[in-house]
Write a structure and sequence with these properties.
The protein is 74% helix and 0% strand. The chain is mostly helical and 296 residues long. α3 packs across α4.
Length: 296
């Protein structure tokens, strides 16, 4: 073996293996669309969380003449049909909208992962029973079911988030089931069984962490879906009257869209940009967490 070969061998042997987290971030940061989505999402979050401190105008306060167009008063984006500041509504409504989306997505993941994990791991009659329940919820009209839940239990933020979560978990359950069916007979799972590990440990501590990457992507995309769902309910008048959200702004100003386009357009743009950012981040995570793509 030549000296140069020895040098190359020693250099390669001294290189430290890159951690999975670093590999994931490197893959994610190399995706320009994903980085752009992350930056856009950060701007939206800063706008919604810090904005009320910089622009302390109450979103429910009547501050000027109704239906004032943008740039024609001290209120940059104009006012709605009650004379409320559109910009203040966007700033304060962002927190409510994102909170509903995140809460509904969390409930979606909890229900979907639980049902999918039990179904995929145990199989047999447990799988048949839980998949029949999943199919039952899949064939129901999601928007109609959410409307019924909100109308029965009042349109509070909690009930809206619960209603969205209840009707949105089925795809997550099927994805989790597929991952558990793929992983439950892997060698490391059999090794856990051979040493007497309980099913609870195998499901939640062994298989679930290895099934996490696609579920993380699903959770990210569920937030965008929940935001759109909340906007749809608010458009139909099923929003919390005590809290401002982007969906409620669209629903409140819907009858005046021909005379005052800004009352609907600006919150609509805010929803579009937020959901777009979440989708770009979700696609970036999908690529970054995919081990086949990471090896390229």
């Amino acid at each position: 073996m030549t000296d140069s070969s020895l040098d190359n061998f020693s250099t390669e042997s001294m290189e430290k293996p890159t951690s999975p987290a670093r590999q994931t971030w490197k893959m994610f940061s190399s995706n320009q669309s994903a980085v752009a989505g992350l930056i856009l999402l950060a701007i939206v979050l800063i706008f919604s969380l810090v904005g009320p401190l910089v622009y302390p105008v109450a979103p429910t306060e009547m501050v000027w003449m109704p239906l004032t167009p943008p740039l024609e008063s001290d209120y940059l984006l104009g006012t709605d049909y009650l004379g409320r500041d559109i910009l203040a509504g966007l700033i304060n409504g962002g927190r409510i909208t994102i909170a509903i989306g995140a809460s509904a997505a969390l409930l979606t993941i909890v229900i979907g992962v639980t049902i999918g994990a039990l179904s995929g791991y145990y199989g047999g009659w447990v799988d048949n029973l839980l998949m029949r329940v999943t199919e039952f919820f899949q064939v129901l009209p999601n928007l109609l079911l959410a409307m019924v839940v909100v109308m029965l239990f009042s349109a509070t933020l909690t009930n809206i988030a619960i209603a969205i979560g209840i009707v949105s978990w089925t795809s997550t359950a099927r994805l989790t089931r597929a991952e558990f069916l793929r992983l439950r007979n892997m060698d490391y799972v059999r090794a856990e069984r051979s040493i007497g590990a309980k099913n609870r440990r195998i499901i939640w501590a062994v298989i679930l962490p290895n099934a996490a990457p696609p579920l993380i992507v699903s959770a990210a995309l569920s937030i965008g879906t929940a935001i759109l769902f909340e906007a749809g309910l608010a458009f139909l008048g099923l929003s919390d009257p005590n809290n401002m959200s982007w969906g409620r702004m669209i629903g409140d100003n819907r009858p005046y869209i021909l005379d005052s386009w800004w009352g609907v357009t600006f919150p609509g743009i805010a929803i579009f940009l937020t959901v777009l950012a979440i989708s770009l981040v979700g696609d970036g995570l999908n690529d970054a967490l995919n081990p086949k793509l990471r090896k390229r």
